[in-house]
Amino acid sequence: MKLKILSYILGLLLLSSLFFIGFLLSVNKEMSEERHTTLYDQNGNELFSNNHWISIGQLPSFIVEYLENEILVDRTAELLYPSQDIKKMLSKMLLKHSYTEEEIFEIYVNKLYFGNGLVGFENASQYYFERPSKDLNELEQIFLLFKSQVGESMSMQQDLEVFLAELMEKDYLLDYREFSTLNSEVPDLLEGLNRRNTNYQSYVQQVTKELISTFDITEGELYRRGFEVNTHLDRDIQNNIYETFQDRTSFLEHDQAFVEGGMAIVEHQTGKVIGLMGGREYYKSTFNRATETTRQPASTFKPLMVFGPALETGWKPDDLLKDVPMKFGDFKPRNYDYRYRGEVSIKDALVKSYNVPTTWLLYKIGLDKGLEYIDKFNLFQIDPKDGYGLALGFTSVGTSPLSIAQAYTVFPNEGKMQEIHTVESVNFQGEVAYKTKGEEERIFSKQTAETVTSLLRSVVTDGTGKAAQIKGKQIAGKTGTTSYDGWFVGFDDRYIGAVWMGPDEVIPENRMNLDEDKYAPKLFKEVFKKVE
């Protein structure tokens, strides 16, 4: 009996040892593996290369000098496994006893994460400057060091200038004359980053967001893991959006503020996100105005909050609404032209974007009824205290073009909202690790959806969205404006496009006139007339 127990214990110890050795070997392989995560467009083409590996002898001396100040064993282990304590401990042990300093350095520089899905110095150099790191000038080298430390930046110029100052004051790698010279060259450097890769950055950012949520790992771990990610990106459409955003005539010029923009294009039956643009100067700021902005949706909210629910509860397009001076609690709506027409039909109220009758209609169906329907979308952070201002899209939190695009899938999809996604599937070591399942949510009846779609077509043919008309295409859509926001969300028989434009800062001096019948619908038209 004792012999059996001893054999059992020895067997367990042997199995544990084999498991530990296997685990150790897998950590060792992960550390030294040269393969990183690759993203593919909808046609199976790489978005950018992540396959360059560099030795210490190929790195510029300035980069080597900066990184030699790091405690590389601890930093490398932390870099590779920030959220996996056991692997972090094992990697430290391996690095100390099985790798030379030069080998550790090589792992470190090739596993650093630079944001935008980029891993390793050489990949970042090829991405940003389209040449090897050994050919970079001093400021370009510093930019890569900056990206390896900071990653994404809301204000690239300001943050890079701070980094330069730290190189002088803390690291003593620059003297004052070098600092002054390099600091003066920062604006030209950033302008030069506006290359062919720039137009994919906002899309890659959304892919990253979805994958982090799916696999519950950090961004750096995600792109070091070696996944093969198949996305829905349509390069032609993405390039089309990018070129339109680069055209200054697409945007209002304003004395006080730079007018920014964001756009999302979604295939409404499947929820596939085929194009995203996060801003006109995304290479200067990684704030994604297609997905992260929270701006008041203005009149684009009317079909979701008021007209859809009203039609669902029995109202008809020809039913008359009051259009006279009224007050709803503390909220007193006004029409954009400050005129009142006594009575207007539901159709005219939506097509001409009249505010007073729209608010009165929400009052008649009940604020709670409007909130009941808007809650079904599960896309908007709504504060009921905003009251009847919600009828006109005056929300405390606001929303993004991507969320509005998803909400509007309800109309061409016969009342069902389609969940949106940039990722088709993820493969890992030859196996499918994840495949997106597009969920649907019934919001309105088929009849309501068809009626609203018909009304939205009239918005484009006879109402505030005329600037979005495209020869040979039947476009349905809705405009929206505030003193700081211009919106248009529209769709054809296949795609939905949502456009926002305005100043980043909502301050009095940035107020502007983003007319409903200009700018946003015009930009939509410029993009969609090339979309097949």
TrEMBL record:
<dbReference type="InterPro" id="IPR001264">
    <property type="entry name" value="Glyco_trans_51"/>
</dbReference>
<dbReference type="InterPro" id="IPR012338">
    <property type="entry name" value="Beta-lactam/transpept-like"/>
</dbReference>
<keyword id="KW-0573">Peptidoglycan synthesis</keyword>
<protein>
    <submittedName>
        <fullName>Transglycosylase domain-containing protein</fullName>
    </submittedName>
</protein>
<keyword id="KW-0961">Cell wall biogenesis/degradation</keyword>
<dbReference type="InterPro" id="IPR001460">
    <property type="entry name" value="PCN-bd_Tpept"/>
</dbReference>
<dbReference type="InterPro" id="IPR023346">
    <property type="entry name" value="Lysozyme-like_dom_sf"/>
</dbReference>
<keyword id="KW-0328">Glycosyltransferase</keyword>
<keyword id="KW-0812">Transmembrane</keyword>
<keyword id="KW-0121">Carboxypeptidase</keyword>
<keyword id="KW-1003">Cell membrane</keyword>
<dbReference type="InterPro" id="IPR036950">
    <property type="entry name" value="PBP_transglycosylase"/>
</dbReference>
<keyword id="KW-0472">Membrane</keyword>
<feature type="transmembrane region" description="Helical">
    <location>
        <begin position="6"/>
        <end position="27"/>
    </location>
</feature>
<feature type="domain" description="Glycosyl transferase family 51">
    <location>
        <begin position="86"/>
        <end position="155"/>
    </location>
</feature>
<dbReference type="Pfam" id="PF00905">
    <property type="entry name" value="Transpeptidase"/>
</dbReference>
<keyword id="KW-0808">Transferase</keyword>
<keyword id="KW-0645">Protease</keyword>
<keyword id="KW-1133">Transmembrane helix</keyword>
<feature type="domain" description="Penicillin-binding protein transpeptidase">
    <location>
        <begin position="262"/>
        <end position="494"/>
    </location>
</feature>
<dbReference type="Pfam" id="PF00912">
    <property type="entry name" value="Transgly"/>
</dbReference>
<dbReference type="InterPro" id="IPR050396">
    <property type="entry name" value="Glycosyltr_51/Transpeptidase"/>
</dbReference>
<keyword id="KW-0133">Cell shape</keyword>
<keyword id="KW-0378">Hydrolase</keyword>
<keyword id="KW-0511">Multifunctional enzyme</keyword>
